[in-house]
Amino acid sequence: MSGGDRLSDLPDDLLLRVLYFTPAREGASTGALSKRWRGLWLSSGALNLDARLAEKAHYSVFFSKRDAFVSAARLSLEAAAAADNPVTRLTFRVGSGGSYEIREFLYNDIVNMARSTRTPDVVTELLSFPAARRVEELRLAAGDPDNLTRLKNEEIEYLHEEFGELSFLCLPSDTLRVLDVTSCRGLKSSPGVAFPRLASLRLSHCGVWIEHLQDLIHAAHVLATLHLEFVKVRGFSAGKGPPSPQPGEGFIILLHCPAATELVLDRCRWVKNYHESNGTTTVKIDAPRLRRFRYQGLLRPFTLHSQAPDLARVDLHILPHVHYHGEKDSGRDLVTFWRLAQNFSNAKDLKLRVNMLEDITVVDSESRAKLLCSFPKLKRLRLEGMHKLNGKTAAVAVANMLSCCPVLRDLRLNLTMAQPDLNRDDVRGRCFLEKKYRQQGRS
């Protein structure tokens, strides 16, 4: 095999695609390779800023590096715009170090994060540059990836909110199509701000008041994709009021997504306000255009406020109550599950994963008549879960599902036998079963 510079033999279009995802520091260094490479990275249309922080140095050194980082970002944005290749994709990641160092870097001091800032924070400053006002795809992420991925089968409870509130006013509202934010304290709505092109929104490891999230959705009338992953969704703040609950519903959180065709709710926690999470929270979704829906979380009262006639695929993963204390109300949970299932009667493809099949089994005929629903369009069903060693209830659970699906064509079962010597309510036992379940699922 002969040597040589094979990379330079690639066409410019392919090189630009590689540079589109390359961190800015590495992208700029390619200019030293040859004349051809000198301005190539500025033509990719993307600027990927990556600030990796070590333990905090002396105060003056730390903040001089921060100011140098912002200045270099501004120069890169302006250079791309001057070359008639404006940046349309802006990524900003800050990590390593500890939470204190990250917040100091972003806000100059901790006081500035929670109060009216004396100096602009890094994100606001970056987005205030004229060359950043044409960005179409904006991705912001902060924090240690290990901390953000430690949760496996639990809903989010404690947040590492490195970014403060993200104000609508600082965003490039006229051009923005994609907004992806990780580790943010929340959104801050502003009257009159519209996002006419925003089609995709993803929030991960964030805390958000429902009214501010709803304001953003209403300001983006073409928002088709909404992903909430490890988000603590808080009810209405002071002076705001939730919908009036029906008897037995408890507190209600209503999410209205008029244009959404894809909705993901992944291990989110739904709470009444910033601190209080006691009581039952009913989640109501109004998404009449929904086509794809994925939910991973605890079993809770959950309804589709309006029918979604074009609903094609539904993925439900009901997590076990790992930290559940006290006696379970199996009858109540059974009713809650089948009421949840009834929301997706229009689905054509259903993937259902539960902890124990016995938890969704309807045994007696009277209860079957009351609880079981019909899936008249369902053609593909995948059912996953564990079952007891010598129990026959799992077979009844499968029969329950089959009786609800008159036109089913494709059935896939991934069932795991639970170990009889482990307590289902024991955390270590659950972890063992979950690990065993995943191993069998890959085989």
Plain-language structure description:
By secondary structure, the chain is of the alpha/beta class. 27% of the residues lie in helices and 25% in strands. It has twelve helices and 20 strands. The strands form four sheets. Strands 1-2-3-5-7-9-12-15-17-18-19-20 form a twelve-stranded parallel β-sheet, sandwiched between helices. Strands 8-10-13 form a three-stranded parallel β-sheet. It has a three-stranded parallel β-sheet with strand order 11-14-16. The longest helix is centred in the N-terminal third of the chain and has 24 residues. The radius of gyration is 25 Å and the shape is elongated. About 3% of the residues have low confidence.
Feature tags:
twelve-stranded parallel beta sheet; single chain; alpha/beta; 443 residues; 25% strand
Task: Give a short overview.
Residues 110-118 and 421-426 have low confidence and may be disordered. Strand 1, helix 3 and strand 2 (89-95) form a beta-alpha-beta unit. This protein has helices at residues 12-20, 24-29, 59-82, 99-107, 110-114, 122-128, 145-148, 210-219, 330-342, 365-371, 393-403, 427-442; strands at 46-52, 89-95, 137-142, 163-167, 178-182, 184-188, 200-204, 207-209, 225-229, 232-234, 251-256, 262-266, 269-271, 281-286, 292-298, 302-304, 313-319, 349-356, 380-387, 410-417.
